[in-house]
Design brief:
CATH architecture: 3-Layer(aba) Sandwich
Distance between the termini: 32 Å
Largest sheet: 6 strands, parallel
CATH topology: Undecaprenyl pyrophosphate synthetase
Strand content: 5-15%
Number of strands: 6
Shape: globular
Number of helices: 8
CATH class: Alpha Beta
Strand order of the largest sheet: 3-4-2-1-5-6
Number of domains: 1
CATH superfamily: Decaprenyl diphosphate synthase-like
Structural class: alpha/beta
Bound molecules: farnesyl diphosphate
Length: 247
Amino acid sequence: MSSIDPEKLPKHVAIIMDGNGRWAKKKAFNRIRGHEEGAKSVREIVRTSRETGIRWLTLYAFSEENWKRPAYEIKALMKLLKSYLKGELEEMLENNIRFQTIGRTGKLPKDVQETIRQTLEKTAGNKGMTLSLALSYGSRQEMVDTVKTLARRVQAGEISPEDINEKLIGSALYTADMPDPDLLIRTSGEYRVSNFLLWQIAYTELYITPTLWPEFRKEEYLTAIEEYQKRERRFGATSDQLADKER
Ligand code: FPP
């Protein structure tokens, strides 16, 4: 039994799902089989998030850098993504899950874009949890797009350079309507953030585990949340200041 405090849940959990390839290699399967098994973890983690009461879940499903992978692997990942979205629609609707994406999704194959569009549309009114998939996502590219958006607004005379502050930048990022992640999980033991949500994770708690993504299931996810709940988040303040505030 997990001992999760429902009062102290992370509002937003973000996950770098890594290790599908290594899992497959360990089992002497091909890499595609690793991604298929990874998709099962995605299902379980989405379900567990909803059951636990997480309000925002963001999964790094395909990075800008992933376009460098062999064509057959990209094709298989796109196929898997499409079948995941089609297969999970029913459950998203039943469980009040809203689907959205962050990233340059215009680069994805047309049929995948169409499936995304339908899933967005059908789940748009759901309010229980927002599942965001980062697709063709890179944080630096997001910042480039954000700077362009703000530069255009300055050029159009809507804002002046002096108006640019953290809030305005936040509202021009892909994640404009999302709170910053409270907890970032990375599987497969790599101590990197790999161009994921760089602006947004300024004060995020990190949980890095050697477990490979296809083996990251409910039990360890709940452990990660428990671990998060033991941390003291100071946002630059001292422990004493935090204690004073609570008094
Ligand atoms: C990392 O494994 C994982 C990815 C490239 C993307 C994540 C994809 C999935 C979990 C599959 C399906 C996704 C959805 C949303 C249905 P890796 O290939 O980098 O592993 P390695 O570092 O061990 O080679």
